Amino acid sequence: MNIQPILTNEQLYPYLLKARYGIEKESQRVTKTGDLVTTDYPKKLGNRSFHPYIQTDFAETQMELVTPVTNSVSSLFRWLAAIHDTVYRSMDPKEMLWPMSMPPALPKEEENIVIAKLDNFEDVLYRRYLARSYGRRKQMVSGIHFNFEFDDEMIQKMFELQEEYKNYYQFKTDIYLKVARNYLHYRWFTTYFFGASPLSEPRYFNGNEHPEEPVRSIRNSPYGYKNHDDVQVTYRSIEEYVNDIQQMVEEGKLSEEKEFYAPVRLRGGKSVADLANKPVRYIELRNIDLDPYQPFGISKEEVEFLHIFMLFLLWTDEEAEPDDWVEQGEQLNNLVALESPLAQTTCYDEAQRLIVEMRNFIEQTGLAVSTEVLDQLEEMLDDPSQTLAGKIYLDSEKSSQQELGAQQGLSYYKKAWQAPYQLAGFTNMELSTQIFMFDAIQKGFQIEILDEQDQFLKLTAQGHNEYVKNGNMTSKDTYITPLIMENKTVTKKILQRAGFRVPQGKEFSNQKAAHLNYEEFRDKNIVVKPKSTNFGLGITVFAEGACKNDYAQAVDTAFKEDDAILVEEFLPGTEYRFFVIGEQVKAVLLRVPANVTGDGQHSIQELVAQKNNDPLRGENHRTPLEKIQLGQSEEFVLREQGYELDSIPKQNKTVYLRDNSNVSTGGDSIDMTDAFSQDYKQLAVETAQALDAAICGVDMIVPDVNAPAHTPNAYGIIEANFNPMMHMHCYPYKGEGRRLTMDILKLLYPDFVE
Predict the structure, then answer these.
(1) Which residues contact 408 (CB under 8 A, 6 or more apart)?
(2) For residue range 427-472, what is the model confidence (pLDDT) as tens digits?
(3) Tens digit of pLDDT for each residue in 220-258?
(4) Is domain 4-418 annotated with CATH 3.20.20.80?
(5) I want to staple 198 with a disulfide (CB 3.0 to 4.6 A). Which of 144, 284, 341, 609 is the partner?
């Protein structure tokens, strides 16, 4: 197969750097000092038997993190970050992930390594077989399986540009066979640069068979976890590959086909037998050691290099018969893997040649990539101490491998817990959506982000799909429900006719007409607000009446947010947010308007800056609390109290900067769920039902929480929200957090979420 003329055809240029990626990463659970834990699999995580992202490998302590298939390296690492975040914060807070391929110190007695306690007894039996066949200690080695798929349009275009093959499926399969054979021949190259298991802790090896000195990669050496020598599978053709594996199973040399632990596996269906009728779809590289200096065990640069390397292997011609070519590579890899991590490799000249050829390949194919990675490889080739194995060995010499692993692991642990309300990888999304995605990942839902900017997700579990927007807009509400709540006039009319107390007022769609009606509201306590808005935007409260100029300014502010406004009576009392899900109130929140507390020394502006330094405060709903702004509305409220921005409040004097209490405008959130009796909660549920809403926020004014809900003027409902923020309930400024995102999942999948 002469590929080089095809790859240099300019018709291939748009496709060469497109690919699909997936990573399966194994890691041991350890204490924060690096000792193997004795605890069971985290209870917070969904069923590992079918969890799409988080599973267990051989041992109960050995986590396996699986990304979805992605179309870009950046997306791959976003999912790696999110899944790691979820795992860290679902484990016992005293536990973390071990960042190295070689396990930490193992129990003295091999039987004390606990096999994974899985629901499916056949899976347990398989692991017991592996323990007998290979020993439990070798099963404890961890690594990365890197799944790589060329862009299908690229292969299709290649097929169109050649004349040798008539069958596309055969062509595609032979493409991957060639890459697989070349990878097996040249895998010593990746072992030299990225091998990262130079040392082992005591009690790793069974018996006395082990390297006498540090090496580049125990995991990729003859001492690593590999099939027995009598397992022989050829990569000459797909038919022979399939037949050999099936024969190994029939002869009892493999218990089943998944026991074939080659450095490269061909993938295309649920079983190896499927490859006889379907093309190879992707290849699985299984020889990648964990990089302890990377939080996810592998760097973006290494993944980008592997993509270039796959293309280069497709480009490169084989120089011997397939079986001989693969066998030569096995011998070279064993040689390189067992070299001292600080020694110049005996394959130095060959490695230099490959780097030069890769540079030529990049130039001839016009790949739009930086050759910086090749520069780094050359530096590592000349100086072995810069390779991963060299770095690990030298850093371990300063203390120990145990201490190095604990130190690196603890740094990743701290980062995962630094902002426990966020989901790493997706921090650009709204916080409620991040929390919702965290819970969905934790419980084992498949997630597809349909529109990131619009916070639109697709969930899949038990063969059932649900579409969710903003974490709480779901199929449980009809199309008309949010339209009702968005229109405050319609909301008031429906609730009033249903017998609920709502504020009285007037609607204006003409700015001039609203100004001219000032006299009607001169001596009344009023609220001026846009007809359709969220997040408290454009709202001005006059609890003690308004002068004409202030009223006019409030009208103009409201019209900036909408083309119609409401001027309503001000209901005295305290405003509370009741969050209704289904037929229950799941949380009640007191939202205190943006405020600062004086210290007798600093100005209001300085106090605001100090309060905004709180790491819980941010912008655009990416943190539990919002930063306090100092705009026209805040200055107006301050003037009403006799303050300016440079005023210095007295010690312990609370100064409010907003009349409205929305957290989105800098307010504080205080959980009050347990303070309210059931009659108020039932009132909120009935309000939601009157609006035909399954999920909504009911804003209720309550003068006295101890007064019965159905006494005169005990409450007033000022509005309902079809897209109520959840994060302020999950992470309140004060009080108990309420995991509403999990309640939404239970509403959508009552039989799936415990």
Answers:
(1) 99, 292, 293
(2) 999 999 999 999 999 999 999 999 999 999 999 998 999 999 999 9
(3) 999 998 999 999 999 999 999 999 999 999 999 999 999
(4) no
(5) 341
pLDDT digits (tens, 9 = 90+) for 636-650: 999 989 999 999 999
Measuring CA to CA, how many Å separate 266 from each of 263, 290, 314, 387? 10, 22, 15, 29
- For β-strands 54-56 and 565-569, DSSP reports them as unpaired
Place of tokens 């004097």: 653
> How does pLDDT run across 663-716, given as a tens digit for each residue?
888 999 999 999 999 999 999 999 999 999 999 999 999 999 999 998 889 999
**Are 194 and 381 a contacting pair, CB within 8 Å?**
no
Distance CA 592, CA 574 (A): 9
Residue type, 480: I
Mean pLDDT of the 208-213 span: 80
For residue 312, pLDDT beyond 90: yes
Q: For residue 578, what are the contacts with CB-CB under 8 A and spacing of at least 6?
A: 585, 587, 588, 680, 681, 684, 697, 698, 699, 700
Asked whether the domain spanning 574-748 has the same topology as the one spanning 4-418, the reply is: no
What is the CATH T-level fold of the domain 504-569, as seen in this structure? Dna Ligase; domain 1 (3.30.1490)
Instruction: Choose which CATH entry (3.30.470.20, 3.40.640.10, 3.40.50.150, 1.10.1760.20) describes domain 574-748.
Output: 3.30.470.20
Taking the complete model, does pTM exceed 0.70, yes or no? Answer: yes
Question: Beta-carbon neighbour count of residue 164 at 10 Å?
Answer: 9
**Burial class of 169 by CB neighbour count within 10 A (0 to 12, 13 to 18, 19+):** middle
Domain ranges in the chain are: 4-418, 431-469, 504-569, 574-748
How many Å apart are CA 71 and CA 387, to the nearest integer? 29
